[in-house]
Amino acid sequence: MASGSIEGSDMSYQSQSSASVFNSVPFAHTNRAFAVAAVHLQAHAFKALIRVQIESLAFVKRRCEQDLKLIDDLITSEKYQNTFGVYGEFCRDAVSEYAAETRKLMSTGSRIVSDSAKFANGEVDRIFEDVAARTIGP
């Protein structure tokens, strides 16, 4: 049996290189461009996710340092009434920091979604401009 041919039929199949198949199929380039754009969008989203994780871990680190400071403050507080004051101040500050961090993460999330939408829109526009150029061009 010859390589690339079908025995027992009057039609024979000759193998083609992937480049010639790619060039012969209509809109194959566009599909490839969409796939590349999808990969770029995923990479963009992954990068944003890593930035959010860095921000979140920095916040957790700051909170852990504040927890250590609370323990030191409780150890050094000499009066029973002062212990409640130290703990009350710690709780007030912690709630304030959590609210501020939530606001910051919401803002970051909103910015990430906006940037991703702009990026995706730019990729799609670029692809359609390329399709138009290929359609109109020689």
Fold topology:
Blueprint lengths: L17 H7 L3 H49 L3 H57 L2
Describe the protein:
The protein is mostly helical and 138 residues long. It is built from three helices and no strands. Helix 2 (28-76) packs antiparallel against helix 3 (80-136). The longest helix is centred in the C-terminal third of the chain and has 57 residues, at 80-136. The protein is rod-shaped, with a radius of gyration of 30 Å. Mean pLDDT is 77; it is low at 1-6.
Top keywords for this entry?
138 residues; rod-shaped
Distance between the termini: 41 Å
Principal-axes shape call: rod-shaped
Q: Per DSSP, what share of the residues sits in E-state strands of 2 or more residues?
A: under 5%
What's the helix count?
Answer: 3
Name the structural class: mainly alpha
Q: Averaging pLDDT over every residue, what do you get? A: 77
Secondary-structure element order, N to C: HHH
The residue fraction in helices comes out at over 70%
**Major β-sheet, in short?**
none
Uncertain parts: 1-6
Radius of gyration: 30 Å
Tally of strands: 0
